[in-house]
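Q: What does the assembly look like in three dimensions?
Context provided by user:
Components: two
Sequences:
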Amino acid sequence: MTVFTRVAGVVIATTHKELQIMRRYPVAIAVLLGWSLLLPAAYVAQAVGFSGSDPAALGAFADRAGTRAVTAYLYLGWAVYLWVSLMLWGPGLSLRDEQLRGSFEALFMTPAPRASLLVGGAPAQLVPAMLIFGVVAAMLRFAFGIPLGWLALIGGLAVIAASIPVLLALGALFAVAVLRFRDAEALVSISRGAVGVLCGVTYPIAVLPGWLRPISNALPPTQIIALLRTAVLHPSSLSGQLGRLWLVLGMAVLCGAVALWLFGRALARSRTTGRLGQF
Amino acid sequence: MRGTSTQAVLAVVRKNLRTARRYPLGTVNMTLLTPLYEMALPTVLLGAAFLVNGQASGLARFVGSTDLAAWLADGMLVASLTVGVMFAVSSAFASDRDSGALEHVWGSPSRRDVFVLGAAATAVLYSTVANTLLILLAVGLLHARYHATALLAVPAVAVMVVGLVGYGYLAGSAVLASRRTGALLDGVGYVLAALSGVAFPVAVLPSFFQVAAFALPTTWGLDLLRHWGQGTVLLAPLPAELGALTATSLAFLALGRWAFARTERSLHRAGTIYQH
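A: Here is the predicted structure of the complete assembly.
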C-alpha cells in the first residue's frame, strides 16, 4: 500500500466521521446558514445608510471597489469569510477537541500517516461551505434580483475549487499552531480578527492605509475574495486574473511545505517533552 | 435588607473583577479587541469606502452629521453594553452550572436577582472603560468630534441601562430554562444591537423592523446620545423620545423580572437546577 492510498484512506474515514457528526447536529448547520444571510444583511443596511443614495458617495465606493453592486460585493465577501473560517479553523479545532476528550494520543497510536491528521477533517467542511455558497447565490438571485449567469456560476465554482489547496494548507498550518501552543481559542480569535480586518471582507482594500495594503495582498483570503468577486460580478474579465490564480496556487505549495515541516518539528518536540496529550 | 442586597451585588462584582484579573489577556480580548476587530473596524472601513472628500455625505442625509467616526463610536458603546450585559448574565449562570456551583450559589441566602445585577454591573463597568478608550482612539486617530452637550446624555444612558438589565434578566432566564442557549443568545444580542441602529441609521430598516427597533430602549438611548453628542437629527420630538426611553426601559425591566421569577419557580418545582 502506497503512502498516497494510506493517506486517502484516512482522509475518507475522517470525512465520513465528520459528516456523521454534522448530521447529528443539524442545528449547527442551520445557524451557520442563518449567519451567512444575517451578517451580510447588516452590512448591506450599513452600506445603504453610509451611501444615503447620494450619487457622490456611491460613486466614491465604485471608484474604490470597482463595482456598484454593493449588495453582491458584501455577500460574496462574507461567503468567503465563512468558507475560510470552516476550512482554516475546522481541522485545528477538531484536533483540539481530540486533545480535550483525551483521544488525541490514541489517534497517534494508530498506523495512519501522521500528516493525514492535519487535513483529514477539512474535506467534510466542503459540505457546509457549498450550502453557504448555494444559499448566498439564491439570496442574491431571488431576494435582490442580481442576475447570475452560467458564466458567473461556473467562474465562481472554479475559484472555489482553486482555493481549496491553499485553504487546506492554511488549515494545516493552523492545526500545527494549535498543537504547539494549545490555546486554540486565542489563535482562532487572532486569525479571525486578521481575516476580518485585513482581507477586504466588507470593504475595498483601497481604503486601507498604504503600508497595510501589501500585507493584505499577501494574505491568501484577500486574493480568494478578489477572485470570487471578479468571477461573479465581472465574469468576462476572469481570464485577466490568471496571475492572481497562480499566486494562490503558489501560496498553497509554500504554506503546505511550511506546515509539513513545522508539523515534523512539533512532533519531534512532543516526543522529547511528552506533552502531546496535554491541554 | 436593601443594604444587604447591595452588598451582595458588590460582592458579585468584586468576584468577577478578581476572576478577570486572573485572565487579563482574555478580558482585554473580550471587552476591547473582539468588538474592535469584529465590528468597529470592518464598519469604519466600509464607511470609509463611501466618504467623499473625507466627509460622510451619504450618512448626513439620514442623520444630519458627517462625522462617521463619532457616530460609530457611540454605536459601539451601545452595542458593547447590549451584548456585554446579555453575555455576562448568561455566561455567569452557564459557567456556574457547568462547574457544579450553581446549586450552592442558589442555596445561599441572597436573592437570585443579585447574580443578575452583579453580572450586569460588571459588564457595564467593562463596557464603559473599554468604550471610553475606543472613543479616545476615535477622537485621536479618526478626528471624531463631540459637543459639550454630550454630558446631557449621561442620565439618558443611565435610564437605558435599566432597560439593559431587563435584557440581562431575559438572557439569564433563557439560560436557566433552556440550558443550551449560548449560540442563540449571541445571535439575539447581535440582532438587538443591530436593530437599535448601532451601525446603520434605523431609517434604512424596512417598516416592520423599524417598529421592532422603536420598542427597544437601546434605540432611544443611542439616538439621544448621538443627538446631544454630535447634534444628529432625532427620530422623534425630544419629549416623546424621553418618554419612549423611560417607558421601554421600565417595560423591559418588568418583562425580564417577570420571566426570571417564572423560570425560578419552574426550576424549584421541577428540581432541575443542576441539570446541564
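Follow-up: Residues 30 and 168 of chain B are 18 Å apart (CA to CA).
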